[in-house]
Structures are given as structure tokens and as C-alpha cells.
Amino acid sequence: MDSLDYQILSILKKNARIKASDISKEIHLSVSTVIERIRKLENSGIIESYTIITDEHKMGNDLTALMEISLTHPRFNDSFIEKIMEHPNIISCYYLTGDFDYLVKICCRSSEHLEQIHKWVKDQRGVRSTRTQFVLRNVKNIYTSLPEPSPEDNA
Question: What is the pLDDT of residue 54?
Fold first, then answer.
């Protein structure tokens, strides 16, 4: 990757629906070169997918919570992950070091709905304990970080 690839990624991060012609004008490359570079970024796996970001409140999910989950034994990891992947209100899951094994981000309708999800999590095989925090306000959520290009990338 070079500085032009980083510029393309930065533009796509702001708006993945932007036209290649608009990108080409902004970074002073031909449209065909921009398209070729985007394809290379996709084929190499640097760009994994394109998605939408919805307003959780407008979607009816007025509550966001972060739940830490501890399992009794690592042998439950695979089955736990399979179950977590199935639940539509669990939108992120991170495997952790420390006192808890996983951190999940939950978006749901209400505290009653969160209680149902909490019971569901506690019912999964191997779950020992949980700790949940309510999110009061989303301050920053950028989904993907783009590192600054190194000086060698500009050469």
C-alpha cells in the first residue's frame, strides 16, 4: 500500500458509495486507476466488505449495553461463539484477556428486552458470570481505523 491507497481508503471510509470519478478528481488519478486500486484492495482482503450504519434509535433500539462474559472453561469457546453469531441484537463480540473472556455490544429495544438477552446469554453452555454496563451516549464509533502511511509508502 502506498499513500494513494490510504487516500482512497480514507475517502471510502467517509462514503463507501462515492463514485470512482469523484475519488479520481480528489486525488488526481484516472478513474481506471482508482477502480484498479480499489479492486486490488478488495482482492487482497484489506477491504473486507461494504456496509451501512443505521441510527439505532430510529431503528427502535433505544438501549445499548456492553456485557462482559466469563466462561467456565476454554472448551466452551467455539460453541459460545456460534451462539453469539446467531443473535441479532449482539452486534459486536471481542475475545479478551483479563477477568472476562468476551465483551459483547448489545443494541435492543428496552431494559426488558436486555433482560431477555441477558437470560439467553446466561443459559449458554459454559457461561460462568456476566457484568453489564449501560451506554449513556455514543461519543465515538468509527468502526475502522486507518493508520497513517509510513514514510516508505510515499517513496
Answer: 85
- Which carries the bigger pLDDT value, residue 137 or residue 155? 137
- Of the chain, the percentage scoring pLDDT greater than 70 comes to 95
Nearest by Cα to 118 from 137, 90, 93: 90
Q: What is the pTM of this model?
A: 0.81
Distances (CA, A) of 65 to 71, 104, 105, 107: 19, 8, 6, 7
Nine-digit cell string for 121: 446469554
Give the Cα separation of 36 and 41 in Å (integer).
Answer: 9
Asked whether 120 and 87 are in contact (CB, 8 A), the reply is yes
What is the C-alpha separation between 93 and 144, in angstroms, rounded? Answer: 15
